[in-house]
Write a structure and sequence with these properties.
Layout: H1 25-30, H2 40-43, E1 55-57, H3 59-72, H4 75-78, E2 82-84, E3 101-107, E4 112-118, E5 122-128, E6 133-136, E7 139-142, E8 148-151, E9 157-160, E10 167-173, H5 175-180, E11 186-188, H6 204-209, E12 229-230, H7 232-245, H8 250-253, E13 255-259, E14 273-279, E15 288-290, E16 294-300, E17 302-307, E18 310-315, E19 319-322, E20 328-331, E21 339-345, H9 347-350, E22 358-360
Antiparallel strand pairs: 1-19, 2-3, 3-10, 4-9, 4-11, 5-8, 5-10, 6-7, 6-9, 8-12, 13-14, 14-21, 15-22, 16-19, 16-21, 17-18, 17-20
Bound molecules: 1-hydroxynaphthalene-2-carboxylic acid.
1-hydroxynaphthalene-2-carboxylic acid is lined by residues 80, 82, 101, 105, 113, 118, 122, 157, 159, 171, 173, 175.
Length: 371
Amino acid sequence: MALETPTRARKRERPGSKNTAGLDLDELRKLWLKPLWLVLSDAFTDEPRTQIVPHIWKWSDVRPRILEAGRRISAEEAERRVLMYLNPGLNGAPGATQTLFSGVQLIMPGEIAPTHRHVPSALRVVIEGNGAYTTVSGEKTLMRPGDFVTTPNWAWHDHGNETDEPMMWLDGLDMPFVLALNAMFYEELGDGYDIQPVTRELDDSQTRYNRGFRPHRDAFAGNYSPILNYRYAEVRETLALMERAGDALSEEEGVMLDYINPLTGGPTLPTIDAHAQLIRPGEHTRAVRDTASRLYFVLDGRGASIIGGQRLEWEKGDTFCAPTWAWREHRVASSDAPAVLFSFDDAPIQKPFSFYRRQALLEGDGHQSSL
Ligand code: 1HN
Protein backbone atom coordinates (compact mmCIF):
# COMPACT_ATOMS: atom_id res chain seq x y z
CA MET A 1 0.00 0.00 0.00
CA ALA A 2 1.19 3.50 -0.79
CA LEU A 3 0.71 4.66 2.76
CA GLU A 4 4.16 6.03 3.53
CA THR A 5 4.65 9.74 3.79
CA PRO A 6 6.72 10.34 0.65
CA THR A 7 9.43 12.56 2.12
CA ARG A 8 10.06 10.62 5.30
CA ALA A 9 13.06 8.44 6.10
CA ARG A 10 12.38 5.12 7.84
CA LYS A 11 12.11 5.38 11.57
CA ARG A 12 15.13 4.20 13.56
CA GLU A 13 15.04 3.14 17.17
CA ARG A 14 16.42 5.99 19.18
CA PRO A 15 19.80 5.19 20.73
CA GLY A 16 18.97 5.75 24.40
CA SER A 17 15.56 4.13 24.42
CA LYS A 18 16.63 0.91 26.23
CA ASN A 19 19.45 2.26 28.37
CA THR A 20 18.42 2.44 32.03
CA ALA A 21 21.97 3.62 32.82
CA GLY A 22 22.02 1.47 35.96
CA LEU A 23 19.42 3.65 37.64
CA ASP A 24 17.06 2.05 40.18
CA LEU A 25 13.77 2.34 38.32
CA ASP A 26 11.73 0.97 41.28
CA GLU A 27 13.13 3.58 43.60
CA LEU A 28 12.49 6.29 41.02
CA ARG A 29 8.92 5.03 40.52
CA LYS A 30 8.18 5.41 44.25
CA LEU A 31 9.33 9.00 44.00
CA TRP A 32 7.15 9.57 40.88
CA LEU A 33 10.21 9.97 38.70
CA LYS A 34 11.16 8.31 35.41
CA PRO A 35 13.87 8.86 32.77
CA LEU A 36 12.37 10.55 29.75
CA TRP A 37 14.76 8.86 27.33
CA LEU A 38 13.11 5.47 27.95
CA VAL A 39 9.78 6.71 26.62
CA LEU A 40 10.79 9.52 24.31
CA SER A 41 10.02 7.59 21.12
CA ASP A 42 6.55 6.62 22.41
CA ALA A 43 5.58 10.24 22.91
CA PHE A 44 7.50 11.99 20.15
CA THR A 45 6.33 9.82 17.30
CA ASP A 46 7.29 10.54 13.69
CA GLU A 47 3.64 10.99 12.84
CA PRO A 48 0.36 11.23 14.74
CA ARG A 49 -0.77 8.04 16.42
CA THR A 50 -4.29 7.47 17.63
CA GLN A 51 -6.32 4.82 19.36
CA ILE A 52 -9.31 5.97 17.28
CA VAL A 53 -10.32 3.49 14.57
CA PRO A 54 -12.44 3.99 11.45
CA HIS A 55 -16.00 2.93 12.19
CA ILE A 56 -19.49 3.17 10.70
CA TRP A 57 -22.78 3.35 12.60
CA LYS A 58 -25.43 2.04 10.21
CA TRP A 59 -28.76 3.84 10.35
CA SER A 60 -30.51 0.50 9.83
CA ASP A 61 -28.97 -0.67 13.15
CA VAL A 62 -29.46 2.60 15.00
CA ARG A 63 -33.01 3.57 13.98
CA PRO A 64 -34.90 0.65 15.59
CA ARG A 65 -32.80 0.96 18.77
CA ILE A 66 -33.39 4.68 19.27
CA LEU A 67 -37.11 4.14 18.59
CA GLU A 68 -37.09 1.38 21.20
CA ALA A 69 -35.46 3.80 23.66
CA GLY A 70 -38.35 6.11 22.77
CA ARG A 71 -40.81 3.54 24.06
CA ARG A 72 -38.87 2.91 27.27
CA ILE A 73 -37.81 6.36 28.53
CA SER A 74 -39.28 9.84 28.03
CA ALA A 75 -37.18 12.66 26.66
CA GLU A 76 -37.85 14.64 29.81
CA GLU A 77 -36.69 11.85 32.12
CA ALA A 78 -33.59 11.21 30.03
CA GLU A 79 -33.04 14.97 29.72
CA ARG A 80 -31.50 14.15 26.35
CA ARG A 81 -32.62 10.86 24.82
CA VAL A 82 -29.44 10.12 22.92
CA LEU A 83 -27.76 6.89 21.83
CA MET A 84 -24.06 7.69 21.80
CA TYR A 85 -21.85 6.66 18.90
CA LEU A 86 -18.80 5.14 20.59
CA ASN A 87 -15.47 4.66 18.90
CA PRO A 88 -14.35 1.03 19.37
CA GLY A 89 -10.84 2.30 20.19
CA LEU A 90 -11.96 4.25 23.27
CA ASN A 91 -12.92 1.32 25.55
CA GLY A 92 -16.45 2.61 26.10
CA ALA A 93 -15.49 6.21 26.95
CA PRO A 94 -17.89 8.69 25.35
CA GLY A 95 -16.56 9.92 22.04
CA ALA A 96 -16.62 9.06 18.37
CA THR A 97 -13.08 10.48 18.13
CA GLN A 98 -10.66 11.76 20.77
CA THR A 99 -12.23 15.25 20.56
CA LEU A 100 -15.69 14.80 19.03
CA PHE A 101 -18.84 13.28 20.48
CA SER A 102 -21.67 12.12 18.26
CA GLY A 103 -24.97 10.35 18.72
CA VAL A 104 -28.57 10.19 17.64
CA GLN A 105 -31.32 12.02 19.54
CA LEU A 106 -35.03 11.27 19.41
CA ILE A 107 -37.93 13.53 20.39
CA MET A 108 -41.38 11.97 20.15
CA PRO A 109 -44.51 14.00 19.33
CA GLY A 110 -45.53 16.16 22.28
CA GLU A 111 -42.21 15.78 24.09
CA ILE A 112 -39.71 18.35 25.21
CA ALA A 113 -36.02 18.21 26.14
CA PRO A 114 -35.67 20.79 28.92
CA THR A 115 -33.52 23.92 28.81
CA HIS A 116 -29.88 23.61 29.80
CA ARG A 117 -26.46 24.91 28.83
CA HIS A 118 -22.91 23.63 28.98
CA VAL A 119 -19.38 24.43 27.92
CA PRO A 120 -19.28 22.07 24.92
CA SER A 121 -20.45 23.54 21.62
CA ALA A 122 -23.02 21.45 19.78
CA LEU A 123 -24.43 20.96 16.32
CA ARG A 124 -27.44 19.06 14.99
CA VAL A 125 -28.19 17.59 11.58
CA VAL A 126 -31.73 16.41 11.07
CA ILE A 127 -32.06 12.76 10.04
CA GLU A 128 -35.82 12.16 10.09
CA GLY A 129 -38.89 14.18 11.02
CA ASN A 130 -40.09 17.58 9.95
CA GLY A 131 -40.86 20.66 11.99
CA ALA A 132 -39.75 19.85 15.53
CA TYR A 133 -37.93 22.79 17.08
CA THR A 134 -34.76 23.79 18.82
CA THR A 135 -34.62 27.06 20.74
CA VAL A 136 -31.18 28.58 21.35
CA SER A 137 -30.73 31.84 23.26
CA GLY A 138 -34.36 32.86 22.74
CA GLU A 139 -34.51 32.03 19.01
CA LYS A 140 -36.64 29.11 17.90
CA THR A 141 -36.19 27.25 14.62
CA LEU A 142 -38.33 24.56 13.02
CA MET A 143 -36.00 21.90 11.71
CA ARG A 144 -36.30 20.06 8.41
CA PRO A 145 -34.35 17.04 7.11
CA GLY A 146 -30.69 17.84 6.48
CA ASP A 147 -30.79 21.21 8.28
CA PHE A 148 -27.60 22.09 10.19
CA VAL A 149 -28.26 23.83 13.51
CA THR A 150 -25.61 25.29 15.82
CA THR A 151 -25.67 25.57 19.60
CA PRO A 152 -22.72 27.64 20.86
CA ASN A 153 -20.83 27.22 24.10
CA TRP A 154 -22.89 28.15 27.18
CA ALA A 155 -26.05 29.00 25.20
CA TRP A 156 -29.39 28.00 26.76
CA HIS A 157 -31.07 25.43 24.55
CA ASP A 158 -34.15 23.23 24.60
CA HIS A 159 -35.92 21.08 22.05
CA GLY A 160 -39.53 20.11 21.46
CA ASN A 161 -41.71 18.29 19.00
CA GLU A 162 -45.13 19.80 18.29
CA THR A 163 -45.58 17.67 15.15
CA ASP A 164 -47.19 14.24 14.95
CA GLU A 165 -44.09 12.29 13.86
CA PRO A 166 -40.89 11.28 15.68
CA MET A 167 -37.92 13.59 15.16
CA MET A 168 -34.38 12.20 15.02
CA TRP A 169 -31.16 14.09 14.52
CA LEU A 170 -27.44 13.65 14.72
CA ASP A 171 -25.76 15.47 17.60
CA GLY A 172 -22.13 16.56 17.37
CA LEU A 173 -20.26 18.08 20.30
CA ASP A 174 -16.68 18.87 21.29
CA MET A 175 -17.41 17.21 24.63
CA PRO A 176 -14.36 14.84 24.79
CA PHE A 177 -12.10 17.84 24.18
CA VAL A 178 -13.75 19.82 26.98
CA LEU A 179 -13.47 16.80 29.30
CA ALA A 180 -9.79 16.34 28.42
CA LEU A 181 -9.21 19.93 29.54
CA ASN A 182 -11.29 19.37 32.71
CA ALA A 183 -13.19 22.51 31.74
CA MET A 184 -16.79 21.25 32.02
CA PHE A 185 -19.60 23.36 33.46
CA TYR A 186 -23.28 22.54 33.08
CA GLU A 187 -26.53 23.98 34.40
CA GLU A 188 -30.29 23.81 34.00
CA LEU A 189 -32.49 26.85 33.57
CA GLY A 190 -34.72 25.24 36.17
CA ASP A 191 -38.25 25.03 37.50
CA GLY A 192 -40.84 26.64 35.28
CA TYR A 193 -38.31 27.07 32.49
CA ASP A 194 -38.20 23.62 30.90
CA ILE A 195 -39.14 25.59 27.80
CA GLN A 196 -37.17 28.85 27.63
CA PRO A 197 -38.94 32.07 26.66
CA VAL A 198 -38.82 32.74 22.92
CA THR A 199 -37.76 36.35 22.44
CA ARG A 200 -37.06 36.52 18.71
CA GLU A 201 -39.08 35.84 15.56
CA LEU A 202 -38.75 32.51 13.77
CA ASP A 203 -35.70 32.58 11.49
CA ASP A 204 -34.52 35.92 12.91
CA SER A 205 -30.82 35.11 12.54
CA GLN A 206 -31.11 33.66 9.03
CA THR A 207 -32.93 36.77 7.85
CA ARG A 208 -30.39 39.11 9.43
CA TYR A 209 -27.17 37.38 8.51
CA ASN A 210 -27.65 34.81 5.73
CA ARG A 211 -28.50 37.18 2.87
CA GLY A 212 -25.34 39.18 2.37
CA PHE A 213 -26.54 41.78 4.88
CA ARG A 214 -25.66 42.61 8.42
CA PRO A 215 -27.46 44.98 10.76
CA HIS A 216 -25.83 48.41 10.69
CA ARG A 217 -23.56 48.85 13.73
CA ASP A 218 -24.17 45.24 14.65
CA ALA A 219 -23.58 44.47 18.31
CA PHE A 220 -23.08 40.72 17.85
CA ALA A 221 -19.82 39.79 19.57
CA GLY A 222 -19.83 35.96 19.74
CA ASN A 223 -16.90 33.80 18.61
CA TYR A 224 -19.43 31.62 16.76
CA SER A 225 -21.79 32.09 13.84
CA PRO A 226 -24.84 34.25 14.54
CA ILE A 227 -26.89 31.96 12.24
CA LEU A 228 -28.93 29.33 14.06
CA ASN A 229 -30.12 27.18 11.15
CA TYR A 230 -28.43 26.50 7.81
CA ARG A 231 -31.12 25.07 5.54
CA TYR A 232 -30.33 21.90 3.60
CA ALA A 233 -32.46 23.11 0.68
CA GLU A 234 -29.99 25.98 0.25
CA VAL A 235 -26.98 23.67 0.58
CA ARG A 236 -28.35 21.50 -2.23
CA GLU A 237 -28.95 24.54 -4.44
CA THR A 238 -25.41 25.79 -3.91
CA LEU A 239 -23.83 22.37 -4.49
CA ALA A 240 -25.89 21.95 -7.66
CA LEU A 241 -24.78 25.34 -8.92
CA MET A 242 -21.13 24.61 -8.14
CA GLU A 243 -21.42 21.33 -10.01
CA ARG A 244 -22.98 23.01 -13.07
CA ALA A 245 -20.28 25.67 -12.96
CA GLY A 246 -17.57 23.00 -12.92
CA ASP A 247 -15.70 24.62 -10.06
CA ALA A 248 -15.35 21.40 -8.14
CA LEU A 249 -12.26 20.48 -6.22
CA SER A 250 -13.21 17.26 -7.93
CA GLU A 251 -9.97 15.39 -7.59
CA GLU A 252 -9.76 15.66 -3.84
CA GLU A 253 -13.13 16.28 -2.26
CA GLY A 254 -15.73 16.41 -5.02
CA VAL A 255 -17.92 19.51 -4.95
CA MET A 256 -17.49 20.75 -1.42
CA LEU A 257 -18.62 23.75 0.63
CA ASP A 258 -17.92 24.94 4.16
CA TYR A 259 -20.57 26.21 6.53
CA ILE A 260 -19.26 29.60 7.65
CA ASN A 261 -19.74 32.33 10.15
CA PRO A 262 -20.64 35.15 7.70
CA LEU A 263 -19.03 37.76 9.96
CA THR A 264 -15.58 36.14 9.78
CA GLY A 265 -15.61 33.64 6.92
CA GLY A 266 -14.40 31.10 9.47
CA PRO A 267 -16.07 28.06 11.01
CA THR A 268 -19.52 28.26 12.59
CA LEU A 269 -18.24 27.12 16.00
CA PRO A 270 -14.84 27.95 17.50
CA THR A 271 -13.91 24.27 17.92
CA ILE A 272 -15.76 22.57 15.06
CA ASP A 273 -15.74 23.11 11.29
CA ALA A 274 -18.57 21.72 9.16
CA HIS A 275 -18.83 20.90 5.46
CA ALA A 276 -21.10 19.41 2.82
CA GLN A 277 -19.84 17.67 -0.31
CA LEU A 278 -21.41 16.25 -3.40
CA ILE A 279 -19.84 13.07 -4.77
CA ARG A 280 -20.96 12.62 -8.35
CA PRO A 281 -21.85 9.32 -10.03
CA GLY A 282 -18.63 7.62 -11.14
CA GLU A 283 -16.47 9.91 -9.01
CA HIS A 284 -13.62 8.51 -6.92
CA THR A 285 -11.91 11.23 -4.91
CA ARG A 286 -8.16 11.36 -4.40
CA ALA A 287 -7.02 10.17 -0.96
CA VAL A 288 -6.26 12.99 1.48
CA ARG A 289 -5.40 13.05 5.13
CA ASP A 290 -5.02 15.73 7.76
CA THR A 291 -4.44 16.08 11.47
CA ALA A 292 -8.13 16.71 12.18
CA SER A 293 -10.43 13.92 13.29
CA ARG A 294 -13.88 13.96 11.73
CA LEU A 295 -17.31 12.47 11.41
CA TYR A 296 -19.27 12.00 8.21
CA PHE A 297 -23.04 11.83 8.00
CA VAL A 298 -24.70 10.64 4.78
CA LEU A 299 -27.30 13.26 3.81
CA ASP A 300 -28.24 11.59 0.53
CA GLY A 301 -27.35 8.69 -1.70
CA ARG A 302 -24.98 5.82 -1.18
CA GLY A 303 -21.37 4.96 -1.85
CA ALA A 304 -18.20 3.77 -0.17
CA SER A 305 -15.22 5.36 1.50
CA ILE A 306 -11.79 3.97 2.24
CA ILE A 307 -10.64 5.31 5.59
CA GLY A 308 -7.17 4.29 6.78
CA GLY A 309 -7.22 1.34 4.37
CA GLN A 310 -10.62 0.16 5.56
CA ARG A 311 -13.59 0.10 3.19
CA LEU A 312 -16.87 1.39 4.63
CA GLU A 313 -20.05 1.14 2.57
CA TRP A 314 -22.58 3.81 3.40
CA GLU A 315 -26.09 4.95 2.62
CA LYS A 316 -28.41 7.74 3.70
CA GLY A 317 -28.56 8.15 7.48
CA ASP A 318 -25.27 6.35 8.24
CA THR A 319 -22.52 8.03 10.26
CA PHE A 320 -18.82 7.15 10.07
CA CYS A 321 -15.61 8.51 11.49
CA ALA A 322 -12.12 9.15 10.16
CA PRO A 323 -9.25 9.16 12.68
CA THR A 324 -6.48 11.73 12.66
CA TRP A 325 -3.99 11.31 9.79
CA ALA A 326 -5.89 8.40 8.18
CA TRP A 327 -6.11 8.55 4.40
CA ARG A 328 -9.70 9.00 3.26
CA GLU A 329 -11.30 8.80 -0.17
CA HIS A 330 -14.88 8.46 -1.37
CA ARG A 331 -16.60 6.91 -4.34
CA VAL A 332 -20.04 6.66 -5.85
CA ALA A 333 -20.88 4.11 -8.54
CA SER A 334 -21.67 5.41 -12.04
CA SER A 335 -25.09 3.81 -11.86
CA ASP A 336 -26.02 5.56 -8.57
CA ALA A 337 -27.43 9.00 -7.87
CA PRO A 338 -25.14 11.79 -6.62
CA ALA A 339 -24.39 11.44 -2.90
CA VAL A 340 -24.10 14.23 -0.33
CA LEU A 341 -21.87 13.87 2.73
CA PHE A 342 -22.03 16.19 5.69
CA SER A 343 -18.88 16.23 7.81
CA PHE A 344 -17.58 17.98 10.89
CA ASP A 345 -14.04 18.12 12.24
CA ASP A 346 -11.84 19.50 15.01
CA ALA A 347 -9.46 21.45 12.73
CA PRO A 348 -10.34 24.81 14.39
CA ILE A 349 -8.85 23.52 17.65
CA GLN A 350 -5.55 22.84 15.89
CA LYS A 351 -5.14 25.74 13.48
CA PRO A 352 -4.48 28.57 15.99
CA PHE A 353 -1.51 26.61 17.36
CA SER A 354 -0.05 25.62 13.96
CA PHE A 355 -0.74 21.93 14.67
CA TYR A 356 -2.82 21.47 11.56
CA ARG A 357 -1.31 19.62 8.56
CA ARG A 358 -2.89 18.22 5.44
CA GLN A 359 -1.61 15.99 2.65
CA ALA A 360 -2.93 14.55 -0.61
CA LEU A 361 -1.82 11.13 -1.82
CA LEU A 362 0.19 11.86 -4.96
CA GLU A 363 1.68 8.45 -5.75
CA GLY A 364 0.11 6.01 -8.17
CA ASP A 365 -3.50 6.73 -8.99
CA GLY A 366 -3.99 8.68 -5.74
CA HIS A 367 -5.95 5.88 -4.09
CA GLN A 368 -5.23 3.48 -1.25
CA SER A 369 -5.61 -0.18 -1.93
CA SER A 370 -8.48 -1.19 0.31
CA LEU A 371 -8.30 -4.11 2.67
C1 1HN B 1 -26.67 17.81 24.82
O1 1HN B 1 -26.87 18.91 25.59
C2 1HN B 1 -27.51 17.58 23.75
O2 1HN B 1 -28.70 19.58 24.03
C3 1HN B 1 -27.30 16.48 22.97
O3 1HN B 1 -29.48 18.17 22.64
C4 1HN B 1 -26.29 15.60 23.21
C5 1HN B 1 -24.42 14.91 24.57
C6 1HN B 1 -23.59 15.11 25.64
C7 1HN B 1 -23.76 16.21 26.44
C8 1HN B 1 -24.76 17.13 26.20
C9 1HN B 1 -28.64 18.51 23.46
C10 1HN B 1 -25.44 15.81 24.30
C11 1HN B 1 -25.62 16.92 25.12
